[in-house]
Amino acid sequence: MKPSAFDYFRPASLSEALALLAKYKDDCKILAGGQSLVPAMNFRLARPAILIDINDLGELDYIFADDNGLHIGALTRHAAFHRRVVDGPLGALLSKVARHIAHYPIRQRGTFAGSLAHADPASEWCLVATALNAAIVAKSIRGDRRISVGDFFNGTFATDLAADELLAEIHLPAMGPGWRTGFFEFSRRAGDFALGMALAALRIEDGIVREARLGVGGVADRAIRLESLEDGLVGHAASPELIDSIAREAWALVTPVGDIHASPEYRRDLIATAVRRALTEAAA
Amino acid sequence: MASKRDVNLTINGASHAVSIEPRRTLADVLRDDCGLTGTHLGCEHGVCGACTVLVDGRPVRSCLMFGVQAEGKTIRTVEGLADGDTLHPLQQAFWENHGLQCGFCTPGFLMLAAGALEENPEMSDNEIKDVLSSNLCRCTGYQNIVKAVRIAARELRARPRA
Ligand SMILES: Cc1cc2nc3c(=O)[nH]c(=O)nc-3n(C[C@H](O)[C@H](O)[C@H](O)COP(=O)(O)OP(=O)(O)OC[C@H]3O[C@@H](n4cnc5c(N)ncnc54)[C@H](O)[C@@H]3O)c2cc1C
Ligand code: FES
Ligand code: FES
Fold first, then answer.
1. Pairing relation of β-strands A28-31 and A63-66?
2. Of B5, B52, B65, which has the smallest distance from its Cβ to A34's Cβ?
3. CA B106, CA B100: separation in Å to the nearest integer?
4. Ligand 1 proximity of A51 Cβ (cutoff 6 Å)
5. Separation of alpha carbons A94 and A52, rounded Å
6. Residue B1 pLDDT greater than 90, yes or no
7. What is the pLDDT of residues A237-272, one digit of tens each?
8. CATH for A15
9. Same domain assignment for residues A26 and A68
10. Which range of residues forms the domain containing residue A22?
């Protein structure tokens, strides 16, 4: 229950951090909020030889919105989203989702970028990024790389990031005032990881869905965007009947995993309910 | 073998010079290097909240931070909550409302509530309950903890602002 020994660096600038990453590559790990890495180290599931603590990099602690959407710097803590970080539906959605992530003290340290880099399939931010088609900016001394979220996750705890890369920014596309959103999560106790969750966003004009985003998380080795079901919503009114049939299609489409917490059959039923509730909230 | 580092920590307003390995968690530094054993360790993986302390005013799990990371920060532990012999309103309310039994979880709950109420003194009863769901207690059944924090919140709001 105590971490094994490591060397510790706390760089004062991003360029210094990237130089250390380039030097030590697989021998080192980035320490952000530490809310996933340190428990793993306390159990000695993770035994990095070197930690590069990025908590002093004020240049990565930012959120700003422009015409393209929301830019979230790597040091943005979960708790930053307790308040709406941007006007309109996106800020409201993020603040609602943030309250489902762990607990208040853990949200004071844990970061949005750390959640994506950690790639827990039950992470709320991984679902947000996947369903809303985020882009991820990775930096290394070799240069910057923009990764579309569809190419970012490789499975449970696995991403496309190279050993010398730092996830510097997440970019979420803008959501105009015509968008409405819904999010539903089921977990055994408040603050636990999700057994199943769904996120829906609809742009509704004159009662007709013009654009749709739909994703589920906590059920497979990564969050899943259900694009074929999004297509089934566009051009129609989001009626209870349509929502019901979309939820049934999600039931058939997703092949969930089983574990000690829930069987695949249970999770499949949960997906249908989560999708139905998220869509119903978005359509209301 | 990583060598020890000399670090100066500010805890409850006092400065503590310690020589620590980077792998030492803040919780262990507080308890073993600074002799402040009011901060308790239950699970050492972020679940129970017994180790909650305030870092720059915010409640955090001290088992999930390394001592070296606390350099330059303001740390507050349960030992700094009372004002001399006068208990903090939260401590008073826990005492009067039977908010503790064995007391193992109490320092964590006190620091959690203190930090959350400093961030938002106007927390609603439901928000208080939500924040308190962060920590575990194996004795009380929580009802008296929730009650004590609600009463202390009222008491703190009624005080003239410093
Ligand atoms: C009790 C408990 C309950 C929790 N419940 C939930 C929950 O319900 N939902 C949820 O989503 N999470 C939950 N978490 C995890 C929490 O959200 C973490 O904050 C998050 O998973 C990781 O973010 P971090 O900043 O703490 O990263 P760290 O723990 O510091 O790092 C995690 C991993 O990501 C890497 N990394 C971090 N930042 C970067 C970066 N910028 N570039 C490249 N690599 C990086 C690290 O090297 C490490 O491998 C819980 C944690 C605890 C302790
Ligand atoms: S000991 Fe830190 S949360 Fe349990
Ligand atoms: S009083 Fe015993 S654990 Fe809370």
1. unpaired
2. B65
3. 6
4. no
5. 28
6. no
7. 999 999 999 999 999 999 898 888 899 999 999 999
8. 3.30.43.10
9. no
10. 7-53
